[in-house]
Design a protein that fits this description.
The protein is α/β, with parallel strands linked by helices and 258 residues long. It has a single domain (4-257), classed as Ribonuclease H-like superfamily/Ribonuclease H (Nucleotidyltransferase, domain 5). The chain is built from 12 helices and 5 strands. It has helices spanning 15-22, 30-45, 82-96, 105-120, 125-128, 136-139, 153-157, 168-174, 188-193, 197-221, 227-242, 247-257; strands spanning 4-13, 55-66, 69-74, 99-102, 150-152. The chain has a 5-stranded mixed beta sheet, sandwiched between helices. The longest helix has 25 residues, at 197-221. The radius of gyration is 19 Å and the shape is globular. The chain starts with a strand and ends with a helix.
Length: 258
């Protein structure tokens, strides 16, 4: 079995970077730094979604599936630095060379990881290999859009046509899975300011499980799984989450059962 790593980021405005670029001092509170940046962005482009290089990674959620089973978690510990989280993510790739799976990873998550690892100087030789160290990577690597070491499900299902993109939440629910529960990406920054970091980590974990379940359905479509093996994958997720006493998994399973 090829190890598979499903991943998702939750990000915040890079207030330190914004201070540096705009000459704002430490006397300007974080929330005001962010609001100034949002306002400037709205005036420039009509929305307040900051450029990707100014998105600081707060949480990296992962599903890892290999011959040992199914695991879901957020990387690191509360309070770990952004550089530590990025290092842990790429360390998994260096060690296992997994297939990466994401929803809009090519459009958001991976470019953010690229910029933020560049800022922090986090090495990731296996991820960046284009065939110089391993000839197999010349024809199948993590960087090229049409290779399958990284599968961006949103991009692939839309046939690489941005006008055909669909939201994960709706696709998951249409497939019979729970989808998002109680939070979305637009609420992450306010929740972080309110000290609700644990809720953000829980939200990120549910998102990667939704992605994994949709990916399992996709593998059924392409013939990688037959009906029996597909149902076994779904049952494994249900059994694993049902065994947890974490509040977000109880809520997730209640929604799934409904």
């Amino acid at each position: 079995m090829t190890p598979t790593l499903v991943f998702d980021l939750e990000t915040l405005p890079d207030v330190d970077g914004l201070r540096k670029l705009n000459g704002w001092g430490a006397d300007v509170p974080d929330v005001e730094v962010a609001e100034r940046a949002f306002q400037a962005r709205r005036e420039a482009v009509g929305h307040d979604f900051l450029p990707l290089h100014l998105q600081r990674i707060a949480v990296i959620g992962c599903v890892f599936r290999d011959e040992k089973g199914f695991r879901v978690k957020t990387l690191g510990q509360p309070g770990d630095s952004e550089a530590t989280l990025i290092h842990q993510f790429f360390k998994i790739i260096d060690h296992y060379t997994p297939r990466l799976v994401s929803w809009n990873g090519s459009g958001f998550d991976l470019p953010v990881l690229h910029y933020r690892s560049l800022i922090h100087g986090v090495a990731a030789p296996r991820y960046w290999d284009l065939g110089d160290e391993d000839r197999d990577f010349k024809y199948n690597n993590y960087i090229s859009r049409y290779h399958n070491r990284h599968i961006d499900l949103m991009d692939l299902l839309a046939k690489y046509n941005g006008r055909a993109n669909a939201p994960l939440d709706e696709l998951a629910k249409l497939c019979g899975f729970p989808g998002k529960l109680g939070m979305d990406g637009s609420q992450v920054w306010p929740a972080w300011q309110q000290g609700r970091a644990d809720e953000i980590r829980a939200y990120c974990e549910t998102d990667v499980v939704n992605t994994w379940l949709v990916y399992c359905r996709f593998r059924l479509l392409r013939g990688e799984l037959d009906a029996v093996s597909y149902q076994a994958e779904v049952d494994l997720v249900r059994e694993t989450l049902s065994a947890s006493d974490a509040a977000h998994w109880r809520e997730y399973m209640t929604a799934w059962d409904a």
